[in-house]
Amino acid sequence: MTRSWYRGIITAVIAVGLLLTQVGNIVALATTATPFGPERFASDHATYVIDTKSAYYRHIWESAIYAWNKTGAFHFKQGSAAHAQIQLSTASQSQSVSMGQDVGLTDFWSRNDYLKSVKSTLNTQLLQEYGYSQSDDLHVAEHELGHTMGLGHNPSKRSVMYYRNRDEGIQKVDIQAVKLRYTLPAGEAS
Ligand SMILES: [Zn+2]
């Protein structure tokens, strides 16, 4: 009797141990932080201009901006063609060729780790060739806007910043990364 009581306690302890391990894993998965580099805009807002002839891709960029603005972490504000800090574009035939297998690309110019000018381009030829849906296109645009704010790639698939992301929209880890990026000074990466 004593022995079986003892065994019962051991079993219970192991069960609790397993439960703790599982909870630990779930927490670890959910908090794979989206990294960021040393560059950031001077403040948590910036002006943009959409530079594409396509009404469809203009809508995609607008929807991605709406999604990020809704998070409250950063504010994209429409600017003038001459002075906007961010240019959102679609690739020409020749640009598309030079982008290779990248469905989106973000180039930036910075001084002392402050972003001065950023250009994000959607490779529309490739998006169509790969059969991306409208929501896939939106996720690619949201990913590129993540780069414009200074975010890097998240190794986890549960992030809009996964390097080959297609399915995921903006996640909590991505919003937290932008908030932290604009709390920490330029020059400090995560
Ligand atoms: Zn990327």
TrEMBL record:
Keyword Cytoplasm: no
Residue stretches spanning the membrane: none
Keyword Isomerase (UniProt): no
Keywords: Hydrolase, Metal-binding, Metalloprotease, Protease, Zinc
EC number: 3.4.24.-
Enzyme class: hydrolase
Gene Ontology MF terms in the entry: metallopeptidase activity
UniProt xrefs under Gene3D superfamilies: Collagenase (Catalytic Domain)
Peptidase metallopeptidase domain residues: 37-186
UniProt protein name: Matrixin family metalloprotease
Organism in which the protein naturally occurs: Levilactobacillus tongjiangensis
